[in-house]
Design goal:
Largest sheet: 4 strands, parallel
Strand content: 15-25%
Radius of gyration: 23 Å
Distance between the termini: 69 Å
Length: 365
């Protein structure tokens, strides 16, 4: 098993795309305090890193990659056989595949194995209490199995074959590991009370100032393997909708926009996967949402200063759905420069010309 620290790809990181992001998924998942966070992303301390790959599984945008943990390659080998056993490296079990930690097996991967009805057994979970990766690995595995069960239920009446967690001589007095991360608290704060309660709480907040342009960094769009695998999993043979509830371990989300959008386009600029896009022609402008590309990183919800973006408590995860219009506006024409522009309310001049007036007044009074 390789002990080389995972590679960090900054351009995919939510904190790199939006420097004020509160995302701490990777740091919360790390059992060894090997990850530090800043406004330009994450840094891994190779002295502390034990290559458990929990950060790889926890990151929604695929910002981490571990040379010793290649889930897709493991699947390619697995589907060639009649059954599959997966063991974590610390347990010392012999198996068809050995992974750094069972918690690194993300929900789409587990669900894919179940959908293929490949008999799969996980070895080593009973020894988590004595493992260096400890409760965090056990909690992440539990969350991923729970999300896989959610996907399995949504596929009914199709019959999947659940992954079996093998009990292998656990300590007789071992307690169930507990894990409460700051990121999970943020997730529950955003969604756990229900959409209506969250919206009501947001309305009570004072209006926020616009996000500075320098707070958002550009980067190429990238769709992580987890999300691509989820596309395959969420396909029903009967063509019916694939309804799932929002879950922290599922790289998916469904968003909408309520009244009050300022057309600042910050959500579009911060999205790391291209799930939020813009289409326009000489007369119209529209903000679109493509659910197939959303990984549930919630960067758009964080960056929205009017707090009008919202997430559905349950949604249809079926793939190949057409992009949905979040907000659409007719373009206006500036009386001064004659350029077309977009504004949520009727204006005589565009923002560029209005800013010029403000600057002139500030200088000359």
């Amino acid at each position: 098993m390789s002990v080389v620290a995972p590679e960090f790809r900054a351009a995919r990181c939510v904190r790199y795309r939006y420097r004020y992001s509160e995302c701490t998924r990777c740091q919360d998942a790390c059992p060894h305090q090997a990850i530090s966070l800043g406004d330009s992303g994450a840094a891994i301390d190779p002295e502390n890193c034990r290559n458990c790959a929990l950060c790889v599984s926890a990151c929604r945008t695929g910002a981490f990659a571990a040379a010793g943990f290649q889930p897709i390659e493991m699947l390619r080998q697995a589907i060639k056989g009649e059954s599959l056993s997966i063991a974590c490296a610390p347990s010392g079990h012999a198996a068809d595949a050995v992974v750094p930690c069972l918690g690194a097996l993300d929900a789409p991967l587990l669900a894919y194995l179940e959908k293929r009805r490949l008999p799969t057994h996980l070895l080593g979970a009973s020894q988590c209490t004595d493992c260096a990766h400890g409760a965090k690995g056990a909690a992440q595995l539990e969350a991923n199995l729970e999300a896989a069960a959610e996907l399995r239920a949504a596929a009914a009446p199709e019959q999947w074959l659940p992954v079996e967690v093998v009990t292998d001589t656990p300590a007789p007095t071992a307690e169930k590991p507990r894990f409460a991360s700051g990121r999970r608290h943020l997730f529950r704060r955003l969604f756990g009370r229900g959409v209506d309660e969250v919206a009501a709480a947001v309305e009570m907040k004072p209006a926020a100032v616009p996000v500075p342009d320098k707070a958002i960094r550009a980067g190429a769009y990238a769709l992580p393997e987890q999300r691509e695998l989820l596309q395959i999993v969420a396909t029903r043979k009967d063509g019916q909708p694939y309804h799932v509830a929002i879950h922290e371990a599922l790289p998916a989300l469904d968003i909408s926009i309520g009244p009050g959008c300022t057309v600042c386009e910050a959500c579009f600029r911060v999205c790391p996967t291209g799930a939020i896009g813009i289409t326009e022609n000489p007369g119209d402008w529209a903000l679109l949402f493509q659910r197939d590309r959303c990984v549930g990183c919630v960067a758009c919800l964080e960056v929205c200063q009017p707090r009008v973006l919202d997430a559905a408590a349950a949604f249809d995860l079926s793939p190949d759905q057409p992009p949905r219009v979040l907000v659409s506006l007719a373009k206006q024409r500036c009386d001064r420069c004659d350029r077309f522009f977009v504004s949520p309310r009727p204006e005589k001049t565009c923002k560029v010309c209005s800013d010029d007036d403000d600057a002139f007044a500030a200088i000359y009074g």
